[in-house]
Amino acid sequence: MAKYDHIGLTISDQVAILNFDRPDQLNAMNRRMMDEIIDALETITQDPDVRVGIITGKGRAFMAGADIKEYAGQTPQQFDAFREKGLQLYQLIEEADIPFIAAVNGFALGGGFEIALSCDFIVAAATAAMGLPEIHLGLIPGGGGAYRLFQKIGLNRVKEMLMLGQPYSAEEMQRWGIVFKVAGEEQVMSDALQLAEKLKRRSASSLRTLKKMLSPRQTEKSFKEQMMQEGKSVLGLFYNEEAQQLIKAFMDKNK
What we know:
Layout: E1 7-12, E2 15-20, H1 31-46, E3 52-57, E4 61-64, H2 68-72, H3 76-94, E5 100-104, E6 107-109, H4 111-118, E7 121-125, E8 129-131, H5 145-152, H6 155-164, E9 168-169, H7 170-175, E10 181-183, H8 188-200, H9 204-213, H10 216-219, H11 223-238, H12 241-253
Parallel strand pairs: 2-3, 3-5, 4-6, 5-7, 6-8, 7-10
Antiparallel strand pairs: 1-2, 8-9
Helix pairs in contact: 1-3, 3-4, 9-11
């Protein structure tokens, strides 16, 4: 496994944990860190033994967005390359065959919140603060955060979050349907691992199919196209050996 400077990666018992590790910078993401995250995500998604991925941060933050010190000094070409790599990062999470859990232990702002939004579940500490504050820099989210939010919550809420640019609590995010579970500050990782254990017990082929069906690329299609895809997917799963074994086991249990 590769040696990283700004992140940690561990894989154990079918669960991969990617840990942002620049705590003195609130895990703000520079170009080197982004390259390392992409490399780690490729390692995770290409490992056939990994069933669930967990992404978290070290210290007081999940990730406080981009490293403004480096960000401010970028040329237009460097800025565009940074943005394009960010899109690759989010896509690796969304299009993975396995579910990802964001264990949000603290600040998740800007690009950090966009990473969390790319995950399938967010488990957040009660003390966590999340938002897209780019407007305070005269910018807007550049990694698809606005559109990911729009798929999850209503337009008025998205306008509020982006135009005011203020942070929101884990409880508010849970009420809006963004956060799956709010945990005590010391319980975030244990709750994320408990969720990972549940997901590990689910059908891998069903999870893989659901991720494809519910990806942004698929959900933007027409309702008719979505229903056709659903029909093809469930038919393929029904004749899959895993499904046949599970159906038989259920029938035998209820005889």
